[in-house]
């Protein structure tokens, strides 16, 4: 039986017009993002089009409000509970956390990044897994556009290829089953803590476990990206 509208009354936190429109729908009415959708969105750099389905969005907004109340910021929660990284005393609220890094170059040293499942993924078809690569160092971006620089794009693509594409073996379609993107600052729910998103298709859970050390969640979600 179709669910009723997810939210019709006032919410205990602020939401934008797009979120309110999504929350007026049922999960059955909402269309999941397919692999072809994701390829198009990423190619067009239209990242604002990526959305969570109504029930997950409501849970995420509720959880976010409670987590900010408990930890002060989403960044503090992620550092303490998901990454277990201790920011340096030189960190500030304005610039975000600063960490001791083994290398100044992003993705060069495995101690400077961590791959985790996205606990609050976008509304994806079941064949797609959403991962997040968290970094201790910053990825240079174009100050005018907010997009990654050509050098940064090359470095990210090299990391994604050797970590995820090569991790899928020698199959001809391995590269076609991996996508990545980096949200602009205004689209990030965890600002100041560097990360990129990686999407993989038709990947066995054992391989995802090798990358993340995490099994697919069957209970309540407890993190964000």
User: Unreliable runs, pLDDT <50, ≥5 residues?
Assistant: 6-10, 218-224
Oligomer: single chain
Query: Which band does the percent of strand residues land in?
Result: 5-15%
CA radius of gyration is 18 Å
In this structure, how is the largest beta sheet organized?
Answer: 4 strands, antiparallel
Helix proportion: 25-40%
Q: How many extended strands? A: 4
User: What is the H-and-E element order?
Assistant: HHHHEEHEEH
Structural class by SSE content: alpha+beta
- Looking across the biggest beta sheet, what order are the strands in? 1-2-4-3
Shape: globular
Q: Determine the N-to-C terminus distance.
A: 31 Å
Tally the helices: what do you get? 6
Mean of all residue-level pLDDT scores: 88
Provide structural commentary.
By secondary structure, the protein is an alpha+beta fold. Helix content is 30%, strand content 11%. The longest helix is centred in the N-terminal third of the chain and has 18 residues, at 54-71. The relative contact order is 0.15. Mean pLDDT is 88; it is low at 6-10 and 218-224.
What labels describe this entry?
225 residues, alpha+beta, 30% helix, disordered C terminus
Give a short synopsis of this structure.
With 225 residues, the chain is α+β, with helices and mostly antiparallel strands. It is built from six helices and four strands. The chain has helices at 17-23, 35-43, 54-71, 74-83, 150-165, 205-212, and strands at residues 113-117, 128-135, 178-181, 195-201.
